[in-house]
Design a protein that fits this description.
By secondary structure, the chain is mainly α. The chain has a single domain, classed as MFS general substrate transporter like domains (Growth Hormone, Chain: A, Up-down Bundle). About 70% of the residues lie in helices and about 5% in strands. Helix 1 runs antiparallel to helix 2 and helix 1 runs parallel beside helix 5. The chain is globular.
Length: about 450
């Protein structure tokens, strides 16, 4: 079998397998972000941990959750295969979410979720590229479509898990997250027939054939982009950490006599992803037709600058509020700008790493993207400890400066990235050895 072509049956104009991956990751995101929306509040209000300790635990957990994919991607590529890795990872994460319902198992539950995430996270999106033939015009937009699915789950998570946790008890929220993870596993297993068979390993390139790009060039580019993403995530990851604390204590959340739950504001981000993505894709498509489309690195730099502007808005809001609470509309404007920047940088970054992946190392290379998120999450945890030592306005200005530094690195990488990607596009397609059988 070969990857899906434009002539094959589709759902919504895309290969059917994309819908299965879309829905699977939607529910995984629901479970992960549902738990994460409650995590800081649970630690500070139920476990009675201090703010600095909670920020460090939050940063360490999110970092570990993005470190395990480095190991999990290698295990999937060399031993388990992508489908088994997704199945085992999803089941392990579900167990971890249910363990969160028991206070004595708190740290064990976090570790279990992170371990399952290591198998699941790099192997699911690495299957997207296999759905398309090399010249399929739908492939450039696939990761943005996939990203919408991710954010449908992210939108529902705080509304369901967050509301259950705040109003009825933390453990109800954590239990709902576990149910969501099981739903994703069921969808993946039921729709596996729509996914492409797994490739065993790439055939050796014939002697004398030009190589698409030197491995050192690709590795150096991935390393440099990873550095930029590390810096960026130091600011970006504050949404679930210090921005959540600001929303709880520094924002007047009363609208028409109704006290808006804190976790609802977190849902604004994925909701805006869902609403804004079609318009953004249409804009990029028009630019591509005119031959003026931005390169992947330029898009990522633009995204980092927009996120910097979002944090500048929060700094302005905190400054104008003085010692009182800022109006909740400031927070809504922040998420609007923040989400636009996110759409420019994160799906394009994931797609870039997938495009640079060798045929037999798809999950491993995508895992390298998550390693950058790991280092960025550690950075974010350390940055978050400054919240208690700084006033909100200068703290948010510092986050804006961090995001702007990431943009500067990405702009500097644009020319070398164009050269590497140009060699890949000019290279001949390398055939693969027979596919792995399903083992049935």
């Amino acid at each position: 079998m070969t990857p899906a072509s434009a002539a094959e049956p589709t759902w919504f104009g895309q290969p059917r397998g994309l819908t299965i991956l879309f829905l699977t990751n939607m529910w995984e995101t629901f479970s992960y972000y549902g738990m994460r929306a409650l995590l800081v509040y649970y630690m500070t209000r139920s476990l009675l941990l201090g703010q600095e300790t909670s920020s460090l635990i939050y940063g360490a957990y999110t970092a570990f959750a993005y470190f395990t994919p480095i190991i999990g991607g290698t295990v999937a590529d060399r031993w388990l295969g992508k489908r088994r890795a997704v199945t085992i990872g999803a089941a392990t994460m579900a167990a971890g979410h249910f363990l969160m319902a028991f206070e004595p198992a708190f740290y064990v539950a976090l570790a279990t979720i992170a371990i399952g995430n290591g198998l699941f996270l790099p192997t699911l999106p690495s299957q997207i590229n296999d759905l398309y033939s090399a010249g399929d015009p739908r492939r450039p937009w696939a990761y943005n479509v996939y990203y919408v699915g991710v954010n449908v789950g992210g939108f529902l998570a705080p509304l369901v898990c967050g509301t259950l946790g705040e109003l009825y008890g933390w453990h109800w929220g954590f239990g709902a997250a576990g149910v969501g993870m099981l739903a994703g596993l069921v969808i993946y297993l039921a729709g596996s027939r729509y996914l492409p068979p797994e490739q065993a390993r790439a055939a050796a390139m014939p002697p004398g054939e030009p190589r698409p790009a030197r491995r050192t060039d690709v590795a150096l580019l991935l390393l440099a982009v990873g550095l930029a993403v590390t810096v960026f995530r130091g600011a970006y990851e504050q949404v679930g950490n210090t921005v959540a604390l600001f929303a709880a204590d520094g924002v007047d959340r009363v609208a028409g006599g109704f006290d808006i739950p804190m976790t609802w504001f977190i849902s604004l981000n994925p909701l805006l992803v869902i609403l804004m993505t079609p318009f953004l894709l249409a804009r990029w498509r028009r630019r591509a037709e005119r031959g003026v489309e931005h390169s992947p690195m330029q898009k990522m730099a633009i995204g980092a600058l927009i996120v910097a502007a979002a944090y500048a808005v929060l700094a302005l809001a905190a400054s104008l509020a003085g010692g009182s609470q800022a109006h909740w509309l400031w927070l809504a404007v922040f998420f609007l700008i923040f989400t636009l920047g996110e759409l420019y940088i994160l799906p394009n970054g994931l797609g870039l790493f997938a495009r640079l992946a060798p045929p037999r190392l798809g999950a491993t290379t995508v895992a390298a993207w998550y390693f950058a998120i790991f280092t960025g999450s550690l950075t974010a945890g350390l940055v978050g400890t400054l919240w208690s030592r700084m006033a909100p306005a200068p703290f948010f200005l510092m986050l804006a400066a961090i995001a702007a530094c990431a943009a500067a690195i990405l702009i500097a990488l644009d020319r070398p990235a164009r050269r590497v990607l140009g060699r890949l596009e000019e290279a001949p397609v390398v055939s693969a050895e027979p596919m792995l059988h399903s083992g049935r």
